[in-house]
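Can you give me the bound-state structure? Components:
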Amino acid sequence: MRGVKILERALAAIPIMLGVCIVVFIFMRLIPGDPVDIMLGEASNVTQEEIDALRAQFNLDEPIHVQLTTYLTRVLKGDLGYSISRSANVRDLLLEALPATVELALSSITLALLVAVPLGIMTAVRHRSAVDRTSMAASFLGISMPAFWLGIVLILIFAVRLKWLPTSGRATYGFVPTHVTGLYVLDSILTGDVPALKDSLRHLVLPSIALGAAPAAVITRVIRSSMLEVMRKDYVTFARAKGVAEWAVILKHVFRNALIPAVTVTGLEIGSLLGGNMVVETIFGWPGMGRLVVDGIFSRDYSLVQGAVMVYGFTFVAVNLIADILYTWLNPKLVIGEKV
Amino acid sequence: MARSRKEEVLLIQGLEVSYQTDRGPVRAVRGVDLSVREGEILGLVGESGCGKSATLLSVMGLLPFPGKVVAGSIRVCGADVLALSKKELRSLRGSTVAMVFQDPMSTLNPAHKIGAQMKEALTVHGLPCTQDILVRLLQEVGIPSPEAVLGYYPHQLSGGMQQRVMIAIALSCRPKLILADEPTTALDVTIEAQILDLLRQINRERGTAIVLVTHNLAVASQFCHRIAVMYAGQIVEEGTVDEVLANPLHPYTQGLIGCIPRFKKGVPLTPIPGQVADLSENLHGCAFYPRCPKREPACLKTPQDLLDTGDRLVRCHKYGYLDYAETAAARDWGNE
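Here's the bound-state model for the whole set.
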């Protein structure tokens, strides 16, 4: 029964993915200038015949609906096309960039949760105390501070001034671990490569903080307000009336029931982090999806951007499905597919 | 009202509860004295906001922020609740005093199974907890197919069944005193009768004392041995249920009885005019004065004390200068 529901939800994602695909396809072509314009730039010694020949080579001379049909048929066969700007297969480029983004996203969200969960619980339990007020002020700062600004400040302090951590990249040359999963930290653990592990962790610290600060602030606030709401519930008073110790009341009765909104927000944050943060990846020279897309947009690399956006769409759908499954575990009243 | 101290399960003296708000303190309970003996059922009756629930929650040490006991003493089975450490208080809760709440649908944790919630009540007090014990507890409160119910989540049970589960949890440590805060208000009338029967049966078989908070005089009349009527944080009348309901002395009690619907055509209800007293203000004289149909200037002059008229206590100065024989006359004067 439950498996069927999950499968139903997964299948419902197909039309969404198709829609995403078509919308991106059309929007990309609304940006003035096509790949050929960008490639030839301001070169003056090119004839109109040469330009037309180049357009024909990339099938850009066909009507848009024909281009779309050709593209969709190819995608269904698993062929995401060829990147003009990078002269490589789009699928290969994505597979190369995805682990970098996944690693950064997971590390940022882990960092965010490590801060947000204890802080959210503490601020709710010590409601209106100095800890509460200070944390709320700090989280307000975390939400308001743009990631690119925080990233630059972190680089200036910890990389340039103090020279504790590297300024950019995923690994120092020569320290890249043997490829297993593409996640450097995991790979270096799997291969027992301690210097590579140290090196990749050092590279992860600053971008993870820059990227994790905002989600940490948001999740702290959500956990806090949701805990405060649950603490007023009768079943919390009843738990205390049973003689349950205060910490057990907080963790077993309050936190568990306060998690639902936190899971929703965390799911959304993971979704957007997995999409790759274009600005932070660019600042830290992180070879992930975000940078790939930024480069792709600037060079009007249609296939590359379309492929990347499809990966975004897919991760969003997948993360939301996982969040839905978690809801039913947290709140037994819910059935998968029903909105909270 | 001479009673042996030994049997007293609950003894509240001069209890004052105050809520600190931005507009100053709200004095929700203003000097309540109560005693409940073993095997006794006391009804605590009054309108919403008269301090009934605050009194009960004080006994458990569970007053919600910003509520605070500012004066008085509470003794449960001899133990001074207000002087207990947090740990001692926790071991008292659930084991010696148990509480049954108003709305079972919101009092059982929606995320945990019935079995787990029952188990918790036993294990926190170090009591053994086997499947058999849990099944027996559910059987005692009349739940059909208890084995299955242990694996249910609260939302899979009806309101009446959830209330039975809550009573089973309350009973699990064999408490000496049960504090029931409007335990049937959220239930259908037929279910209400069943739940009250169940509580009465527990009271009779085990001698468990019960304090029943209700705003329903009809429920109190069927169920309680003694009732205390509260108004604006004070007890205004207290006595055996038959006496108080048959011959209410305090104008407020008389008013409450006038509000009970009767199955007789053409008999209009007589509501009590006005609104409940503002608890953030200090009282001068009688709290009920603005709403009282029999008020006179003298009512405002002195603080009203709880007077012993022989068969009961009443907080109305009219009964103070009368001897017992004249009480009836005073009442008749009031009933014109």
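A couple of observations. The longest helix of chain B spans residues 189-206. Chain B has a mean pLDDT of 84.
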